[in-house]
Design a protein that fits this description.
There is one protein chain. With 172 residues, this protein is mainly α. The chain has one domain. The protein has 3 helices and 2 strands, in the order E-E-H-H-H. It has helices spanning 34-79, 86-95, 111-171; strands spanning 5-9, 12-15. Strands 1-2 form a two-stranded antiparallel ribbon. Helix 1 runs antiparallel to helix 3. The radius of gyration is 28 Å and the shape is rod-shaped. The model is unreliable at 6-28 (pLDDT under 50).
Amino acid sequence: MEITTTTIGKNRYAPEGADDINLYGMGASGQLTIGQLALAVSIRTAAAMEAQSVTTMNRTSANAAVLEDASNWMRQIADGSATNRWSEAKAFAMNTLGIPATSLPDNINSYDKRMQAVTAFKGQVDPLVQKQQQAMIDLQTYVNRRDVAYNTGSNIVRTLANSMAGEAYNFR
């Protein structure tokens, strides 16, 4: 029985589309043991979880910046300090948050118009906050899965080392 492997790093191998496994050891043709196969799968899983973690962290960072900007604009609109910069705030609301122009007032010179603008911002920010919270949960899940994969790989290496030490002792 033989398994085709692909190199995924120095001294790291993973199965490549085959389901046959050599149960006994590394042969001349490069066959993998069960332990080596399990280790390769653990390492590949850990690497995939790491990649997903990095992607999620980058997306979370970008969303956090948008939420911070939106929060700053909402505060300035509510307290009236953005009155002279309303066109800039309105452009941010339409281009970044996706608020339709019809939902925003032409100016924020009155309390009612400022509250209309804040309500429009809030309507777009609340779903972003929920997405951000879900992304953080996803990130924690990826990190936990990565840790489990690394621990599994470490346990396999330790077991293989103990097994080899036992075999070496039996040769004495």
